[in-house]
Amino acid sequence: MLLCSNMYTIETCPCCQSKEVHARWAIIAPFLAHYAVGRPPFLCKLLECSNCSFRFFDSRLAPDEVDRLYSGYRGERYFAERHRWEFWYSRKVNDGIGSDPEEIAARVAGLERLFLPHVNHATVKTVLDYGGDRGQFIPNSLGTNKFVFELSDAVPVHGVTRIGSEQELNRMKFDFIMASGVLEHCSEPASVLEQLRSCQNPGSLLCIEVPYERYGIGFAGKGRLYRSYLNTLLHFPAALVAVDFYSAAARIRLGHIPPLGFVKCHEHLNFFNKNSMNALLHRTGFEVVDSRIECIAKYPARVETLHILARLR
Ligand SMILES: [Zn+2]
Questions:
Q1: Domains observed in the chain
Q2: Cα 68 from chain centroid?
Q3: How far apart are the CA of 22 and the centre of ligand 1, in A?
Q4: Please, which residues bridge with residue 293 across strands?
Q5: How far is it, in rounded angstroms, from Cα 84 to Cα 216?
Q6: How far is the CA of 309 from the centre of ligand 1 (A)?
Q7: Which are the contacts of 190, defined by CB distance < 8 A and separation ≥ 6?
Q8: pLDDT tens for residues 206-254?
Q9: Are strands 21-28 and 43-49 parallel, antiparallel or unpaired?
Q10: Secondary structure of 118-141 in the HEC alphabet?
């Protein structure tokens, strides 16, 4: 792979634009570095905003890196490179994400619980699922014309039309827009919300779903000693993979980064809570109608999701 750009860094909170942030050392995941950035892994920082408590990585993917990461998302080359650096990332997990009927039903039910009380079905005709894979998460009960905006070539499910380019999207307006599992990946989440705002009809609702990931980061260091430790790990790929596995297992099972473990910057660049999501929505011209944190799975690990329903201010 060609050596290309090396991500870009930000120091200001993307949600509330505060410059008051706390930093901890972290590592760009070996998979992300090799597959999307085109270089060995390197250090970055996990920042937490003192104002709105948003957590985010200072390193952000440039447009060409986003293309490389998501154009063949979870395809053969993606799986091979990811499994090479994360032996615990199995074929079953890779192929199951987004296609497990139970997962689809649980996610659709979660969305319906949040927004059905607020929806006037007589006024909702056109529905967009932004970044919605095959459109399989659009509830049957919602709208008559259903669209999915998806840059990958996923074939949409029956009854859903794919929009494959931003130019096409920008010419359209919708009565209801969903964005599930999108904003945590975005280098510039405010730009995405501004684009969605311009695609809304007056009175339209916007339904956002992001993972609620607020694991403990107390053992991720801030100082020179911890930075030296991480730099040493970067020189020994086998040790890096072993500590990565140990860190990921503790994060998933125990809900915190373990002693001598590390936080890694992987596909999720953003970690929202209600406060930071409110700040981002306010800054991009929306007001929150309803929000909740739902537990969608308890085994093998607790998985929580933040649902937000918003409309134009
Ligand atoms: Zn902030």
A1: 8-97+214-270 (no CATH), 101-212+272-312 (3.40.50.150)
A2: 16
A3: 11
A4: 306
A5: 27
A6: 20
A7: 14, 15, 280, 283, 284
A8: 999 999 999 999 999 999 999 999 999 999 999 999 999 999 999 999 9
A9: antiparallel
A10: HCCCCCCCEEEEECCCCCCCCCCC
Q: Using CA atoms, how far apart are residues 121 and 119, in angstroms rounded to an integer?
A: 6
Distance from residue 12's CA to the centre of ligand 1 (Å): 8
Measured CA to CA in angstroms, residue 198 lies from 163, 175, 184, 209, 298 at distances of: 16, 12, 21, 19, 38
Distant-in-sequence, close-in-space partners of 65: CB < 8 Å, separation ≥ 6: 4, 5, 7, 36, 37
**Which pTM does this prediction carry?**
0.93
- Which letter, b or e, does each residue of 232-242 get, where b requires 16 or more Cβ atoms within 10 Å of its Cβ? ebbeeeeebbe
- The Å distance, Cα 179 to ligand 1 centre, comes to 21
| Lowest-confidence pick of 77-81, 267-271, 275-279, 292-296 | 292-296
